[in-house]
Amino acid sequence: MACTRVLVLIKSLGLGGAERLLADALPYLNRERFEYHFAYFLPWKDFLAPQFKEAGFPIYCLGTSGAVEDRLRKMGEEKGQRIRWLPTALSQLRLLQNQKRFDLIHAHLPIAGILARLTGRWYGIPVVYTEHNLQERYHPLTRRLNGATYGWNERVLAVSQEVTASIKRFGFNRKTRVETLLNGVPVEQVRAEAGNLNGLQAELGIPPDHLVVGTVAVFRGQKRLLDWLEVTAQIAEQRQDVTFLLVGHGPEEAALKAKIQTLGLENRVRMPGFRPDGRRVLGLMDVYLMSSEFEGLPIALLEAMALGKPVVATAVGGIPEVVQDGQEGLLAPVGAVDTLADYSLSLLADPQQRQQMGERGANKVAQKFHWRDRVQFTERLYLETLAEVERKKMGGI
User: Fold this and answer.
1) In whole angstroms, what is the distance from residue 361 CA to residue 369 CA?
2) What is the mean pLDDT of each run of 10 residues along the chain (397 residues)?
3) CA distances from 226 to 18, 170, 200, 247, 311 (A)
4) What pLDDT does 74 receive?
5) Which DSSP string do the residues of 231-258 spell out, in sequence order?
6) I want to staple 92 with a disulfide (CB 3.0 to 4.6 A). Which of 27, 46, 62, 286 is the partner?
7) pLDDT for residue 251
8) How confident is the model at residue 78, as a pLDDT?
9) Is residue 355 within 8 Å of 9, Cβ to Cβ?
10) What number does CATH give the domain 4-184+370-395?
11) What is the domain partition of the chain in residue ranges?
12) What is the dihedral of CA 111, 115, 118, 121, to 10 degrees?
């Protein structure tokens, strides 16, 4: 049987959650049945690209070097101008399709989804699309383009029930079939990467007798990390034996550092920046704390749970679909700084509760959120989609 040629398309290969999902899937892909190719558009966001090359998968940066790359970078970095580079990116994608003749495109995130649908429409090939966020959170123009082309998806996978509900609020589900497929993580790989913590606590300047409250995030508004720091300030007032880890980088970094100084937390909060060994850093944490305003289904949360970390978080997006309040962690409303602080303090004071919640979370992720199962589901969906498209063609003869 000939391999089905699949192009997996995403805007960039930086270290966002959706991008990490693609890299995490690589060991589980059925390479006997499918010939996978990967493509992205933004040349300056390519941190994960070497993983695909090392695993032996063809990978293409459709924002080529020279003038095209300079143009894409300029447009991608100008606020409000990101849509302007779509024609260039679409031209590159069509050229790739002409060369490789893919049987199916699987796109992630709206920009890649729009381009995939236009290409699929042009060449008559099916598109599967994964929706990672709420429609309300997209730029209005992105949302309009998404909606105008949504019916050109053969199938849509939403990463949480909340994301599915958002698709339905905008009526996009009437244009194509939508299924919920919750995110997952490669459990064994996460645990292996977090297995060796030797020297890490000292490297980060954490006293050996301290508990650690932490998070891994992109420093942007949706994470409400100023709230996160307000929570840590309340904890720090009552506990002198807790260090706080704020891992990541992003546009709000300067504001966060200023807030740390204002709160007098310079000696309590560690900001190690972007860490390629982020899973190892997760292994140091005793409580995983999130204060987000909205989410799809955060990968770092699942990774923390896979490592047996109890969760204190806001009840947004797909988080309540994974964390049952009082079982794997404790959930609070958005902006409830006092409640998040109280929950964190209660866990820090109760090692037995931390252990029990952590064990329940680790078992749940291993049993219900393993990335291997998601890959197998998706590959079955590819075959079903291609069979349905073929039947439609035969019915039209």
Assistant:
1) 11
2) 91 85 93 97 90 95 60 48 71 95 96 96 96 88 90 94 92 93 91 92 95 94 96 97 95 95 96 90 97 89 97 94 96 97 98 98 95 95 94 74
3) 24, 31, 26, 14, 19
4) 52
5) HHHHHHHH-SSEEEEEEEE-TTHHHHHH
6) 62
7) 92
8) 46
9) no
10) 3.40.50.2000
11) 4-184+370-395, 187-368
12) -110
Task: Identify the pLDDT of residue 77.
Answer: 46
Task: Please write down the long-range contacts of 26-31, taking CB distance under 8 Å and 24 or more positions apart.
Answer: 26/51, 26/52, 26/55, 26/57, 27/55, 27/186, 27/189, 28/186, 28/371, 28/372, 28/375, 28/376, 29/375, 29/379, 30/375, 30/379
Domain 187-368 CATH (choose: 3.30.1020.10, 3.40.50.2000, 3.30.70.1150, 3.10.180.10): 3.40.50.2000
End-to-end CA distance of the chain: 25
Structure tokens at 373: 């199962």
Q: What is the pLDDT of residue 393?
A: 81
- 38's CB contacts (< 8 A; 6+ apart) are 7, 8, 9, 10, 22, 52, 57, 58, 59, 60
